[in-house]
Amino acid sequence: MESLRDIRQNIKAVKSTQQIMQTMKMISNARIRKAQDAMTAARPFAKKMLEMVDDLKQDILAMPQPDDGSESPAGRFFVNRTGDPSKIGLLVITGDKGLAGSFNAVLLRAALHFLKKHQDKQVTLFAVGKKGRDFFARLKMPNLRIVYESVGIFPKVSYAHAELLGEAVMKAFFEEKLGSVTLIYNDFKSLASQNLVEQKILPFNFEQSQNKREERDFEFEPGVKEIFNILVPRLFKANMYRILLESQAANLAATMNAMDAASKNAGEIVSALGVKLNKVRQAGITNEILDIVNGANALNG
To answer: For residue range 121-171, what is the model confidence (pLDDT) as tens digits?
Structure first.
């Protein structure tokens, strides 16, 4: 049986852990408000950029293709008929730290399933988040190649991070003639839940974000091609920025919920240890009384 000293030490250790969990919950709660504000502020810009490029899309695809049988950058971006289907890209966005419940585990499980599903293809990986980078670095898969990694950016994501990420993804997509690029991340749904998202981001399609808008006839100056070359990189990077902010908010929400649950569990353990402490103390007192009574009886006998 544990001694009173051991139980008291256990209670002290659990209370100390509980204080740490409560502090982390408060920090996550404070940070998530800023993350939500940044995420909400980024959505209108990304949406408007999407609408502008959507207006350009049909005119862009109607432009003449190169005579040598290759595909224009616009065609590659939207259709990608000349990409190599045996070469694909995978972008995985995880957190930099643990203590976020199943946030990272769900992402890595989905990514591992994706890799097993495409074992016959060469996978070019873009890893955002230390947890994902470390996980993929330990994998011994001959068809997997990490070409870009970004760690330590959460919870202070900036547009500069999105620019670097977007540039790396688009460069690999065009220069290495990837057939497609798939994104896996946790989308912010609410403070209580996150939504696992797995979708193709290149070639770019508007199925996820199309709005019912009236047909409009635009004239683009200085020209459709010039506007495309300006807007498309900005659109893709703005979308990457929105996705990073969504993932950041989801991670903070998961951390806050995990720390809240851990703090409550610690409180229950402390209560259970308190009951155990009282039982052991009462048992000790009872034994001491019995020893005294037995000793007195022996003397009187």
So the answer is: 999 999 999 999 999 999 989 999 999 999 999 988 999 999 999 999 999
**Residue 150 region by backbone torsions, left for phi larger than 0, else alpha for psi between -120 and 50, else beta:** beta
Going from the C-alpha of 161 to that of each of 40, 48, 91, 205, 286, the distances in angstroms are 18, 21, 14, 23, 67
Verdict on whether the full-model pTM lies above 0.90: no
255/261 Cα distance (integer angstroms): 10
Q: What is the spatial distance between Cα 252 and Cα 255, in angstroms, rounded to a whole number? A: 5
Q: What is the rounded CA–CA span in Å between residue 279 and residue 252?
A: 41
User: Cα-Cα-Cα-Cα dihedral of 289, 293, 295, 299, to 10°?
Assistant: 160
CA angle (261, 23, 4) in 5-degree steps: 75
The phi, psi pair for 19, rounded to 5°, reads -65, -40
Residue 17: C-alpha distances to residues 24, 99, 101, 196, 271 (Å): 11, 13, 16, 30, 14
- Closest to 258 (Cα-Cα) out of 207, 191, 210, 171: 191
Q: What type of residue sits at position 206?
A: F
* Residues whose CB is less than 8 angstroms from the CB of residue 201 and which lie 6 or more positions away in sequence, other chains included: 91, 169, 181, 182, 183, 239
Could you list the beta-strand ranges (E) of the chain: 84-93, 122-128, 144-150, 178-188, 194-202
